[in-house]
């Protein structure tokens, strides 16, 4: 997709646009819509969300197999055998249904965790970078401590005091805490680095001397110019959170079987990698699918919000 | 400590020879590094405090066995006495700090009679070698792919990079490791009748290193490539870059330096902690490839409640990550001289 | 090596300050003078010394080692075969420790065992190299009383990942390994590998434990209902790929006491439901219970199957609770569980005495996790432990076993078998049911050899 050259100030390109300035968001949405990959990504994500929402209904009406029904006569079968399109797992459960139902947990974990990490990492990174001095030092030393935080231990302590029960969402709460608690540090350092390098540019000096408030300065000038790496970090955080859920479940925090999750399906499937490699490949593909979709959206979002591309 | 050219800082209070030194950028940088090194002490201290509290709050004692006969209460009491676990936690903490100041990190509970220093020192060379090897793969390949993808945005090269990055991120370490063993050890052995294959794990300063290093490097390469791409895109889209580029060869050199300077900051930011993680080991890669390093040490210590080892590995890691972040911050100044370190 | 080395070895092992495992209950309940083991003040060398000199151990001449017992014990001939009861040379220990040391020292006496140079033994092989967490190398001990062994080198590798071990076997890096359960069918279907695979029993039985201190698990009918609603055939033939074998009794195949005549715990869903009704227990009462599971893949898989069986066959909706292993141990020690499993026992030695003390009344919270109450059991078993006539012992143990089965103290599910791959050029390997895990034939490695290949 060609990058449109910035138009000369004042000359209208699209005469259908009304004379007053189009708002940032409407403008961004229009550009997003025209980015084919981004729209594709949006479509894929919508598809995943729909699947996550309707899969319990599909099971209820018998359209797909019951994901927790065990059929130990056909353990670890290859795709296509016995009416199981994607084969079965270690207890003879249908892989396709487990993938569909697993999307509920995995999408929630992947997305919500980023939703928690984003404001925390952003706030700390922006504050440290913008104000500098003592504040930066204290915040960054605080971050250093968090980098070394023994999250495994923390999880064990949680396990000691929190009895697992309830629906899968309730079981996820300590997981959100455990993952988000530690993973905001990378984003904070990233944002701070960006701010440090942008802070000294001339146009910032100019804006500052013209009396803009720090917050406005940050949000209007610094943030849009550093979005790219932030978005990449958040999209990569999604599969990371999905796998962390599986790792944590090995310690007993989080989703109890038989509720399927993509991360646990990959982890359990690794045992049978000789016997039935598809038990690993299919859930990994599902995760890859999700990451790809969000990568497209992320790229599209950044292009759409890029202030240099605004008229 | 702001570094603004031309403004004398502490010269008035220091002897004249040092005055010249502190006025220079290098001088103030050195002072900055020293200050940061001193700050590592409270950081490590707080990490120890947090770890201590969490350790003693987790259920399960080091002497519980996961199967078979449990130790009788008498023996448990004797063991607790031997390792000082019968004292109140606060006293144990003070004792630990006192010992650490004498570089004594205690004895492991699990590996009877071996000291923490001995265990970590013995395992670390293996871990560090593989970690460094992986890092040497990540930097050129990751950054190189990222820049390439940015310059050729939305072409096949770009899509191939995105595809590769997605693939690497969807398969976690343990899967990639196991798959590599299946392909490059077992299947390759079968197809070549035992003539050519990679060893399925274990340690050796030879082709034993290939698969673990590659497995470790794959996801960081993907992330670094995408990050570099995003960051480079931000930079090259600036109007003045495009204008300068159009002006011709002499300007282009300036442009390249300028682009690299601006796009490397986020990359360097993440490469620092990446190096720290690599060099303190991945539990998964070391498990799958049977490397006797310290990557597993922390996880094993936690699951077996080996308190001195938990503390030892955590302290090591906190020092390394603090040092890595320090190096990153110093590099900021070299990459972008405008950055003011505080 | 002289008899005095045996005395020293036992004294070393029985030093209360060193807190060795396996002293209790094997040695402190049998050796004369050892019953004071728990009461010795470990900070006082003189207290320790007087305890040790009071033990019934002596070496009247260089070739005779005498152990005095507190009371008759027919099983003691097995106790002395335990790996902890070995001779040690005092001079080696002291040299490694850097000189003599007081009895209350807890680190110096252990130094000899920490490096390959000083670790000595009296078996057919000696250790030439230890690479921590990687491997141990054994070479022949030319001074062995039975003559030097054939094998020139044995390397034991520590390999965490079963798939990696499988790969190493296939690329010729390993000569013996245990096949992970997931790959059993791969091996069976492979024309080459299937010929190299051997199945053999281990003296290990597994069962599910119910917390009898919680109603309604104090009711034997309820426990029996749970036991009878597990389809062991499916569990072992399908889920465990027909390696492990179903068992309805306590003592495993391969040692005296194995008896399959009592089939009270066999699978019968209808009878199971009837038992629940008879006991007057409702689903609502049971649904709040969870099955405590250790966080290994094997346990997760087995328990998902078992709880599915209970839910389907008894009309329940119970949940799993998968947690970190140490936390599980900590909870079962305090009785903080509803159902726990798979629990089991592997023989320390092939005598029934080693098994039945698990269910003593005072083993509650330390092996008898469910604290099941078995009237008359303790007296019966202790009588069998003390008898010298083997037939009388077997008869009494058998009665006790029947009591365990009929009152469903626990729900027995399978005996552990091992599926190993062994290269065809390893010859004269004698495999017994009592072999150590993943070391097939380790009692008779002296006789093994490698054929030309």
Structure characterization notes:
The complex is a heterotrimer of chains A (311), B (342) and C (453). Chain A is mainly α. Helix content of chain A is 69%, strand content 0%. Chain A contains eleven helices and no strands. Chain A has helices spanning 24-34, 36-60, 95-131, 133-147, 151-161, 168-199, 202-209, 214-225, 227-251, 262-271, 278-305. In chain A, helix 2 (36-60) crosses helix 3, helix 3 (95-131) packs across helix 9 (227-251) and helix 10 (262-271) packs antiparallel against helix 11 (278-305). The longest helix of chain A is centred in the middle third of the chain and has 37 residues, at 95-131. In chain A, 51% of the residues are buried. Chain B has helices at 16-23, 25-57, 73-82, 89-101, 116-151, 156-170, 173-191, 210-236, 239-247, 249-279, 283-288, 295-303, 307-335. Chain B is flat. Chain B starts with 15 loop residues before the first helix and ends in a 7-residue tail after the last helix. The model of chain B is unreliable at 1-16 (pLDDT under 50). With 453 residues, chain C is an alpha+beta fold. The chains are: A mainly alpha (311), B mainly alpha (342), C alpha+beta (453).
Major sheet of chain A: size, sense and barrel closure?
Answer: none
Low-confidence runs of at least 5 consecutive residues of chain A: 1-21
- Average pLDDT of chain B, to the nearest integer? 83
Number of helices of chain B: 13
The biggest beta sheet of chain B reads:
none
In round numbers, the mean pLDDT of chain A is 79
